Amino acid sequence: MSDYPLFPASAVAFAVTVAFMIALRPFATSVGLIDRPGGRKRHVGDVPIIGGLAMFIGVLSGLAVIGVINSSSVALVFSFFLLVVIGAIDDKYAIPAAVRVLVQVAAVLIMVNGSGFMLASIGNPLGFGEILLGPFALFGTLIVAITVINAYNLVDGVDGLAGILALIALLAVSVVGGLNALSTVIAVIVSASIFGFLVFNFPVVANRQVRSFMGDAGSTLLGFTVFWATLGISEGANAIISPVVGLWFASIPVYDSLTCFTRRIVAGRSPFRPGRDHFHHTLRRGGFDVRQKLAILGGLQAAYAAIAVGAHSAGVADVVLFIAWSILGLTQNWVIKSIAKRHRLYIFRQLRAGKLGPYRAARARSLR
User: Fold this and answer.
1) Which residues pair with 49 in a beta bridge?
2) Around Cβ 297, how many Cβ atoms within 10 Å?
């Protein structure tokens, strides 16, 4: 049992998020916080970008029920506020990446100052003993935090994907970390808000008329929370897991971002320019629909999180976990491409055999 009123706080976070997902729709229309199709955006119709704002308000409401006011919780709220505000501004005006990163750095510094959480150790990934960052701890914290925050931002290209990936990571943190630490309690509250958002974002027919996006305000909020919550149970005297275990919780977003960045650099392009080279783009070219892409990428992330939780419980050495994580990262793009290629060939065989209906046949022909 948790020492905190976890169920009431989570229920409030969920309910408030749902309420504001409805209440903010007219506001989004009036201020132009709308995502319109065109260019790389292939969704149908104008969609309000209110998920980040609604989740932020939902999380604040859940924290109010918890009633814990200390330097850590206050710093977290200020960090959330900075990320959501700059994210919402970016959703409307598309501000430069350098400005966004500067604000993200400020949010992380506030978190470090208020909570005392810092990446002081990276565990024993090489098998030669624990690696302490010493005077480079703050720099390492900033690098990893900015990487994770933007990994969730970059992976947010399919309805429900960023939310589901963050939800899996936060639930894994809660399972392995227990429910008495403030960081894991907040992970549960944020998870409840994600559920509230997914009511309006998960790709089903029932919510088509009220579909909404989380935008940069939401994806950076979730990426920050995943990093903060994982750091809270992997660093310091009361650490529960090794930082190497925490790597597995955000595998798909990190693999996706690093793969895209590497591919773009090798091709002589800026790694920060948008493109159609993410995992979900590869799966789309393989003929998978939105829900199938969610099932594949979410399923992989759930499997990786389960491996990490199981390995931690079994006492698997950091070096083994790190080698396995690295091999998966190096081969993940090949795995995704192989899945897409096999499915594409399957669809074409079905098309030639005349086993596809008119709609699916038209989709299959568009893949050629």
Assistant:
1) 213
2) 24
Classify the C-alpha dihedral 21-151-46-195 as positive or negative: negative
Residues 6+ apart with CB under 8 A from 296: 283, 288, 336, 339
Model pTM above 0.90:
yes
pLDDT at 108 over 60: yes
Q: Averaged over 68-80, what is the pLDDT?
A: 89
Specify the pairing of strand 34-35 against strand 47-48: antiparallel
Q: Report which of 193, 166, 191, 202 is spatially closest to residue 302, judged by C-alpha positions.
A: 166
Whether the per-residue pLDDT at 44 is higher than 70: the answer is no
pLDDT at residue 45 in the model: 66
pLDDT tens, position by position, 333-364: 999 999 999 999 988 888 788 877 777 777 77
| pLDDT surpasses 70 at 38 | no
Q: What 8-state DSSP symbol labels residue 121?
A: B
Return the exposure string of 98-114: e unless at least 16 CB atoms fall within 10 Å of the residue's CB, then b: eebeebbeebbbbbbeb
For 69, the enclosing helix (H) or strand (E) is none
- Residue pointed to by tokens 């859940």: 62
For the record, the structure tokens of 301 come out as 């992330």
Q: Where are the domains of the chain?
A: 6-366
Give the C-alpha separation, 276 to 105, whole Å. 27
What mean pLDDT comes out for the span 66-77? 87
Q: Are 157 and 279 in contact (CB under 8 A)?
A: no
Cβ–Cβ < 8 Å for 231, 75: no
H or E segment to which residue 207 belongs:
none
| 3-state secondary structure at position 34 | strand
Question: What are 250's two structure tokens?
Answer: 């955000």
Show the tokens assigned to 223: 């990426």
C-alpha dihedral (198, 203, 206, 209), degrees to nearest 10: 90
Rg (CA), the chain: 21
Is residue 319 pLDDT above 60, yes or no? yes
pLDDT in tens, 189-239: 999 999 999 999 999 988 889 999 999 999 999 999 999 999 999 988 788
Q: Do 180 and 190 meet the contact criterion of CB atoms below 8 Å apart?
A: no
Looking at this protein, which amino acid is placed at residue 224? F
Contacts 24+ apart (CB under 8 A), 285-289: 285/340, 285/344, 285/367, 286/339, 286/340, 286/341, 286/342, 286/343, 286/344, 287/340, 287/343, 287/344, 287/347, 287/363, 287/364, 287/367, 288/340, 288/343
